[in-house]
Recover the amino acids of this structure.
């Protein structure tokens, strides 16, 4: 299926058909996605899997209402059925918007250049990198008992047309390599995790990078074998660069997404311009980072991605909008309307969200902390946007004593409140780094970047078993 | 759909593949969200596709497509064969063979398809109205939903596996925000059924409201070692995480803390834990699993003693035994993997008020955040953030939040000393569980 030369007249007719009983915005989203996944465990590449999913969705907005229908059939019959399903849901008397003729197709292929399309690389070569990761992880120590190494690439082509006359084509390639390694000593079992990925092609990876990624995961697991149970209590917490950014993503980022704002279900609702963080904190969501894992040229509503300042010097300056919430709020969309696939309604989502780096030296931050907790790698976490309360597992953590990183600690969690911890950030370093992740919300997983520089939170609750 | 499955088998055989299995899916679903007594979102979905596994000398290739045209089926089969060429062979990996008659379970009620959109919307509206009416401190019902799914699955293989069934379920869900003096607390509830008529929308809304309002005024409590009561929602989440360690896959890959402990005491002696894919009202009940193997009933823990693990065809061959019918698929694009069907937590029940009355110090846990990130199913250690209500001298006292609950999974299982009389189905993994009382937990507060 060649989306770039898709029948524009059929798109127009579908939008018109969807709007025929009322509604003030209609959109067609067509997707053609090819994926390949390789997974190695126990030294074996397991059931290799790949495939192609195509589908079309029709969305109709009427006031605050969303009607959505999709089908795996990307043809006139499928589009007509979807348009009829949404039109049938409109109550009599809902007002109908005008329909602007579709303009020429917009695309921005230079935004996330792909030097080596993964489809042009043999599966055998991809498999070699996965095996190299297994070898590298196991060579770290005899205590490495398991390595799970994964490689995945997707090429997702989308075509988005709407009643405003927008017609956007976006061709997205993503490549990612992951390693999860298990180390064991007697009854103590620990795991380590590392990833590399981007909105880019196979040029992201080679054997050196694959080996380094797996080795890093293995070293994390091995170090944690020496750990003792983390203490319980409030103490200064230093969050490392890279994976430490998960905390900002979960504890603050979700509360900036405009759907939670619109329902007053976020601690950031009604606080525009107010102080929500320490004055040294500025933060961004940036979907336009070249080749970033969370980046794409356009969001899934055809809006170009951008760099959005969400916190400036401690004051709240922006929310993350999709078209629907932007329209309701009288704001401009920010390129954050994302969906997992044609089977999902677009909602406001982060892209790459981060606290801007400062100018401290990471070593000085540790040295300035007589006793505290150093969270090098977070395992992920959960947050309630309404209260801002969150909890995080710490995958790799250490005690800080006398201004030095000492004993590894296991079983620690970080518990707190989003605004509270942002207010308590008192040092930010310059060692900015972004990691790749998949963020889940409302049953939809989308690729996101999380990152930050090393920073310190003056006091935070650490929950442990020691 | 069987014509398409047969066409795939023929094409694969024409390419020289002898051992081939094809899985097909065709379904429709509705998802309705209301907000402030208006429909906020209505989604109508149609889904169909096929996935094929090619087995070649112990190596497997998998491919899937939603495009069922002739050309797409050709590409599908070629890709599966190519993928098999890069997978490593494994002597225990082989095409599943027929293993007896499908289980006598019919997870479908024809009334599901008779429902109109008006009736479905009415369920979601009633959920929201009941939540708002339950308490003036309920200001917002962030989610009031009705969701259903109605679909057929099909399987056929060159080994003679051949079958299909229809399954349907629906649920109502509420997620409520309650507010008082600048404090916001949340609560949720579900109702599940095979048809819309099975759902009690009003009680879903009012229960979610109660779960939110009883947390108002919550604050940290002192750190202590004390018994806790996990309510059925929290218990279901814990047993859901735990169940991954009870799969043969985790055991064989050295990822289970239960490996090699069959016949040992691993839990309080009253605990019975069973996987049962044949229960008439089980959300994940089915005649057969994603490999065409009949669903069954598998005791996992009995009298506190570990009985065994869950198997699919591959892990069963490796262990020299038969599959338990737990080769589950997420859909046509997914490979089968070992997972529970319906997990049932059972044992002698004690009335919940009697349990509370007998407790000098403790916490009723009604929400736990971070179970999936804070619990490590490999090492068994966990530390999660909890909300709930404190119990002092046999009565509920103040609500608590921002406290942590920490321990290790086996210690927690061994500490189980009573089960409530409030067992219910919890979706999102399909667990049937009562409240569970556990002694000696570390509660981290002030």
């Amino acid at each position: 299926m060649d989306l770039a030369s898709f029948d524009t007249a059929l798109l127009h007719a579908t939008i018109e058909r969807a709007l025929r009983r009322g509604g003030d915005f209609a959109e067609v989203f067509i997707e053609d996605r090819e994926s390949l996944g390789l997974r190695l465990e126990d030294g074996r590449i397991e059931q290799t899997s790949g495939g192609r999913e195509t589908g079309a969705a029709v969305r109709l907005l009427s006031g605050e209402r969303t009607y959505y229908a999709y089908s795996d059939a990307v043809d006139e019959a499928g589009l007509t059925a979807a348009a009829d399903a949404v039109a049938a849901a409109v109550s009599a008397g809902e007002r109908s918007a005008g329909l602007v003729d579709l303009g020429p197709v917009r695309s921005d292929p230079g935004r996330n250049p792909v030097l080596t399309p993964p489809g042009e690389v043999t599966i055998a070569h991809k498999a070699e990198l996965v095996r190299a990761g297994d070898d590298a992880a196991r060579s770290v120590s005899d205590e490495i008992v398991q390595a799970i190494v994964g490689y995945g690439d997707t090429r997702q082509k989308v075509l988005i047309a709407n009643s405003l006359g927008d017609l956007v084509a976006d061709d997205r390639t993503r490549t990612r390599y992951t390693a999860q390694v298990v180390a064991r000593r007697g009854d103590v079992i620990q795991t380590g995790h590392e990833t590399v990925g981007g909105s880019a092609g196979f040029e992201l990876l080679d054997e050196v990078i694959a080996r380094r990624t797996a080795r890093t995961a293995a070293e994390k697991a091995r170090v944690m074998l020496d750990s003792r149970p983390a203490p319980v209590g409030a103490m200064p917490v230093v969050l490392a660069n890279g994976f430490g950014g998960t905390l900002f993503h979960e504890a603050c980022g979700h509360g900036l997404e405009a759907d939670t704002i619109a329902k007053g279900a976020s601690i950031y609702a009604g606080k525009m311009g107010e102080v929500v963080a320490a004055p040294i904190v500025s933060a961004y969501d940036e979907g336009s980072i070249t080749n970033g894992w969370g980046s794409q040229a356009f969001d899934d509503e055809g809006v170009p991605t951008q760099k959005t300042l969400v916190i400036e010097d401690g004051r709240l300056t922006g929310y993350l909008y999709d078209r629907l919430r932007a329209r309701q709020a009288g704001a401009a969309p920010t390129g954050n309307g994302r969906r997992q696939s044609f089977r999902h309604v677009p909602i406001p989502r982060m892209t790459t969200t981060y606290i801007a780096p400062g100018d401290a030296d990471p070593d000085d931050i540790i040295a300035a902390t007589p006793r505290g907790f150093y969270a090098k790698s977070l395992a992920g976490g959960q947050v309630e946007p309404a209260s801002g309360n969150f909890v995080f597992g710490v995958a790799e953590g250490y005690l800080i004593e006398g201004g030095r990183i000492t004993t590894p600690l296991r079983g620690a969690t970080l518990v707190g409140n989003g605004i509270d911890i942002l207010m308590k950030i008192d040092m930010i370093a310059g060692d900015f780094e972004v990691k790749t992740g998949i963020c889940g919300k409302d049953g939809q997983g989308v690729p996101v970047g999380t990152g930050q520089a090393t920073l310190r939170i003056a006091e935070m609750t650490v929950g442990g078993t020691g | 759909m069987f014509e398409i499955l047969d066409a795939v088998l023929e094409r694969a055989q024409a390419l020289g593949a002898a051992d081939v299995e094809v899985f097909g899916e065709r379904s429709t679903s509705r998802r309705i969200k209301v907000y402030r007594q208006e429909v906020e979102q209505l989604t109508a979905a149609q889904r169909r596709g096929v996935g094929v596994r090619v087995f070649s000398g112990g190596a497997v290739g998998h491919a899937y497509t939603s495009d069922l045209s002739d050309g797409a089926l050709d590409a599908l089969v070629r890709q599966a064969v190519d993928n098999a060429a890069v997978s490593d062979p494994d002597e225990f990996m082989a095409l599943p063979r027929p293993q007896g008659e499908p289980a006598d379970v019919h997870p479908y009620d024809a009334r599901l398809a008779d429902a109109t959109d008006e009736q479905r919307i009415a369920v979601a509206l009633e959920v929201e109205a009941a939540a708002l009416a339950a308490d003036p401190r309920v200001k917002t019902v962030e989610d009031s939903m009705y969701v259903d799914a109605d679909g057929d699955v099909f399987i056929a293989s060159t080994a003679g596996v051949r079958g299909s069934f229809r399954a349907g379920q629906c649920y109502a869900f509420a997620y409520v925000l309650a507010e008082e003096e600048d404090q916001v607390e949340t609560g949720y509830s579900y109702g599940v059924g095979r048809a819309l008529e099975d759902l009690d929308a009003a009680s879903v809304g009012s229960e979610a409201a109660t779960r939110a309002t009883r947390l108002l005024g919550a604050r940290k409590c002192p750190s202590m070692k004390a018994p806790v009561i996990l309510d059925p929602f929290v218990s279901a989440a814990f047993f859901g995480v735990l169940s991954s360690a009870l799969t043969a896959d985790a055991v064989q890959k050295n990822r289970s803390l239960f490996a090699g402990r069959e016949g040992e005491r691993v839990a309080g002696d009253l605990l019975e834990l069973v996987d049962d894919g044949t229960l008439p009202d089980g959300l994940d009940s089915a005649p057969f699993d994603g490999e065409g193997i009949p669903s069954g009933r598998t005791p996992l823990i009995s009298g506190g003693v570990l009985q065994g693990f869950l198997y699919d065809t591959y892990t069963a061959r490796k262990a020299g035994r038969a599959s338990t019918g737990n080769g589950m698929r997420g859909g046509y694009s997914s490979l089968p993997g070992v997972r529970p069907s319906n997990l049932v937590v059972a044992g002698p029940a004690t009335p919940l008020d009697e349990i509370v009355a007998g407790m000098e110090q403790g916490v009723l846990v009604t929400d736990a955040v971070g179970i999936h990130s804070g619990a490590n199913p490999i090492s068994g250690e966990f530390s999660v953030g909890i909300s709930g209500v404190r119990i002092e001298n046999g009565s509920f006292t103040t609500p608590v939040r921002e406290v942590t609950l920490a321990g290790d999974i086996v210690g927690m299982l061994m500490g189980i000393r009573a089960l409530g009389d409030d067992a219910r189905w919890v979706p999102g993994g399909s667990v049937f569980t009562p409240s569970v009382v556990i002694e000696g937990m570390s509660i981290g507060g002030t």
